[in-house]
């Protein structure tokens, strides 16, 4: 169930924008689609939203294929936040939302609009023309619009682009709220910090899917985990001890000893225990984790080399 | 149908905020009313020369003598009726101009505001979307024309010879206004929608939509020269042709309004 892409391919003339992309979006999952500009993220989103048809492959929503016949019906179960808010500038915030509430066939459009205005904290601006809103407010109205009909599938293209930190945080909290409600969320973004905070799984797209997995799984696949222990005294003696215990790349930097966990059966607690037994005073233990940005760049770099 | 009504409501609300779109329409309406008044009433009263004394209007008197219901009119009133009725075709330009102004901006305006993509992401179908765009332009265009017609008739009742006003209320005048005008407007705005689906410049759409004015002008001139007499059967025949033309244009508009092209190629 949920939304799934099966071997999605989209060509524009000779150019292949999206090449054989498959993944599933489970209920209650936040899935992030990463990729450089022109990688096919927006095209993928548009295919998932039923706006453009794939050249080959299919999109399925709750096991039903998205076709030109079923598209209209299936689109009512999807909320799509486009890259730009795309509000009707001459209309007020309320008129914008009200029209969409009617387009989605909601039985009580006024109430749905009132609820959305409250949830997004824009009730006091509902009589203002969209053209007069700040970028952050426009984005908030656009988000309200895409969630008006309470869709089980939410596709967000750069949801926090151009927002100030406070607004961006509010949007992130809202996205986490969608997950708590059991909705599936797909985010396209360049903001890796955001992905780190939100995503259950990450996919890296460069026309084709280069990598898919949880952030920690991708880290483990690409980077060897390291442990660092901060001591109360110079660390050289302890680094030598760890090397003799089989941690070949153990090294000391001042009062810090660090070692790679690759190719050893020792775990972090066991290493700490060995240090304590050897008389070391421990101040702090940290597992060194590469930033998602490093993981992403490494994936793209290794892909570029192929 | 409800989705179409929702979008028509939006189009009308949008128009209320954009009154400058109506400037060319007001201008056309003003001249459509003023020019026949000038010819049939103002000029004779200023020069002191009656229209029936001029040999230029013999055709008019001849034409009107052939129609029994005109028998009650004197020569001067018959010529006035002839002029006012002839210029009624000119009034058809009001909804045509309005339709083109509104429709050319409707699709292109959405494109320029980047509002088309979220709209296409709703369950709305292409037929509903285009239907709403067409109705959203046609309704205000026809309302404007009825307004202009009201002013035209009031002015005629006020300044023209007795009896001319009632001639203008004859079925053939009403057929021109209420059958031919909406159909011509529909054709013009569908042409504008077709073109605006494929171009990014509203002016291009308007210029191509303006082609509709050519046959109208031809009809107007032919009528004044007495080459054509717009009888009710002829108007209905023209209307039938326009229905066919509109059906073809609707089919073409749906084919041309390619969601993918609009989303992926328009920048």
Short summary of the structure?
The complex is a heterodimer of chains A (306) and B (267). With 306 residues, chain A is an alpha/beta fold.
Roughly what percent helix of chain B?
over 70%
N-to-C span of chain B: 31 Å
Mean pLDDT rating of chain B: 80
Q: Using DSSP, what is the number of strands of chain B?
A: 0
- Name the quaternary structure: heterodimer
Report the radius of gyration of chain A as a whole number of Å: 24 Å
The proportion of strand residues of chain A reads 25-35%
Strand composition percent of chain B? under 5%
Output the structural class of chain B. mainly alpha
Question: Main attributes?
Answer:
heterodimer; A: 306 residues; alpha/beta; Rossmann fold; Alpha-Beta Plaits; six-stranded mixed sheet; four-stranded antiparallel sheet; 11 helices; 14 strands; 37% helix; B: 267 residues; mainly alpha; 14 helices; 0% strand; elongated
């Amino acid at each position: 169930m949920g939304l799934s892409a099966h071997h999605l391919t989209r060509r524009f003339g000779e150019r292949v924008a999206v090449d054989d992309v498959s993944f599933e979006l489970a209920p209650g999952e936040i899935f992030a689609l990463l990729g450089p500009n022109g990688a096919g993220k927006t095209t993928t989103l548009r295919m998932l939203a039923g706006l453009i048809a794939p050249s080959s492959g299919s999109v399925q929503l709750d096991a039903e294929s998205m076709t030109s016949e079923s598209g209209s019906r299936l689109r009512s179960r999807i909320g799509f936040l486009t890259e730009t808010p795309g509000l009707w500038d001459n209309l007020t915030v309320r008129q914008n939302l009200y029209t969409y509430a009617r387009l989605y066939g909601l039985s009580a459009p006024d109430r749905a609009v009132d609820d959305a205005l409250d949830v997004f904290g824009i009730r006091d601006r509902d009589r203002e023309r969209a053209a007069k809103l700040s970028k952050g407010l426009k984005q908030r109205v656009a988000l309200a619009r895409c969630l008006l009909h309470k869709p089980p599938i939410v596709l967000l293209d750069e949801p926090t682009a151009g927002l100030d930190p406070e607004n961006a945080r509010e949007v992130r909290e809202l996205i986490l709220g969608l997950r708590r409600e059991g909705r599936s969320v797909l985010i396209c973004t360049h903001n890796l910090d955001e992905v780190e905070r939100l995503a259950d799984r990450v996919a890296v797209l460069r026309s084709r899917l280069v990598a898919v997995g949880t952030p920690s799984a991708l880290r483990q696949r690409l980077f060897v985990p390291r442990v660092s222990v901060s001591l109360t005294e110079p660390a050289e003696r302890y680094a030598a001890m760890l090397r003799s215990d089989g941690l070949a790349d153990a090294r000391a930097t001042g009062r810090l000893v660090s070692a790679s966990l690759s190719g050893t059966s020792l775990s972090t607690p066991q290493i700490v225990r060995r240090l304590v037994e050897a008389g070391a005073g421990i101040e702090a233990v940290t597992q060194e984790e590469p930033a998602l940005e490093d993981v992403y760049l490494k994936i793209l770099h290794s892909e570029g080399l192929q | 149908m409800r989705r179409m009504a929702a979008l028509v409501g939006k189009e009308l609300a949008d128009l209320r905020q954009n009154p400058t779109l109506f400037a060319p329409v007001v201008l056309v309406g003003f001249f459509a009313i003023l020019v026949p008044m000038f010819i049939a009433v103002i000029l004779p009263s200023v020069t002191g020369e009656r229209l029936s004394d001029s040999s230029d209007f013999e055709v008019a008197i001849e034409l009107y003598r052939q129609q029994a219901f005109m028998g009650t009119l004197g020569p001067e009133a018959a010529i006035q009726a002839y002029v006012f009725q002839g210029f009624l075709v000119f009034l058809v330009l009001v909804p045509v101009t309005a339709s083109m102004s509104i429709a050319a901006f409707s699709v292109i305006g959405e494109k320029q505001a980047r509002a088309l993509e979220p709209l296409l992401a709703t369950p709305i179908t292409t037929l509903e979307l285009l239907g709403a765009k067409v109705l959203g332009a046609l309704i205000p265009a026809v309302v404007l024309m009825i307004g202009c017609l009201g002013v035209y008739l009031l002015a005629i009742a006020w300044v023209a010879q007795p009896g001319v006003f009632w001639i203008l209320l004859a079925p053939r005048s009403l057929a021109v206004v209420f059958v031919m005008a909406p159909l011509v407007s529909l054709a013009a705005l569908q042409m504008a929608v077709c073109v605006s689906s494929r171009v990014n410049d509203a002016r291009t759409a308007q210029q191509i939509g303006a082609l509709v004015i050519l046959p109208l002008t031809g009809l107007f001139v032919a009528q004044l020269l007495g080459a054509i007499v717009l009888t009710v059967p002829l108007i209905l025949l023209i209307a039938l042709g326009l229905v066919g033309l509109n059906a073809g244009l609707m089919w073409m508009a749906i084919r041309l309004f390619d969601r993918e092209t609009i989303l992926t190629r328009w920048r």
